[in-house]
Design a protein that fits this description.
By secondary structure, the chain is mainly α. It is 73% helix and 0% strand. The protein contains seven helices and no strands. It is globular and about 55 Å long.
């Protein structure tokens, strides 16, 4: 992949990558730093990408690895309730933020990629390197847990 193609492809997915990093990390400046590091690492490794059709899933996987590295470097998980309201219109209610935050990591990844970063089931499976059926199962489980959590939250408010 030449530099012009790489730059064009990065620009096509930059907003989606930023939104994903922001949802994972909860801090705009850290998300930008992780995005920059992701692009740098992807550029260095661009010769290893064998199929340009897989660019989006390939660079998203690099981003998720960088998000995990950043959380480890910090030594703690950044709470999603610190997330700015501008990150995602669908994510602006506190009960939803808290419910997603409480999900196990493998379920949270699917929810963020599928519903807030708008990846398809197949793209999510490719990014996470798991079978399509596993993503579908994790999605059902996550939605079930979110439903229970939000219904429980609603019953406390009533």
């Amino acid at each position: 992949m030449n530099m012009d193609t790489f730059a064009r492809r990065v620009e096509e997915v930059r907003h989606r990558l930023y939104k994903t990093a922001l949802l994972y990390l909860g801090d705009e400046s850290v998300a930008m730093d992780v995005l920059d590091e992701t692009v740098y690492k992807a550029l260095k490794a661009s010769s290893t990408l064998q199929e340009e059709d897989f660019f989006t899933t390939w660079i998203t996987r690099i981003l998720l690895n960088e998000c995990s590295n950043e959380r480890r470097r910090r030594g703690r998980f950044v709470a999603l309730d610190a997330l700015p309201a501008t990150a995602s219109e669908q994510f602006d209610t506190l009960p939803l933020r808290d419910a997603v935050r409480r999900l196990p990591v493998e379920l949270k990844q699917v929810v963020i990629l599928r519903f807030f970063s708008t990846y398809t089931l197949r793209e999510t499976a490719e990014v996470l390197h798991v079978p399509l059926g596993t993503v579908a199962t994790r999605q059902r489980r996550a939605l079930s847990l979110l439903r229970l959590d939000l219904e429980e939250e609603d019953s406390y408010e009533s």
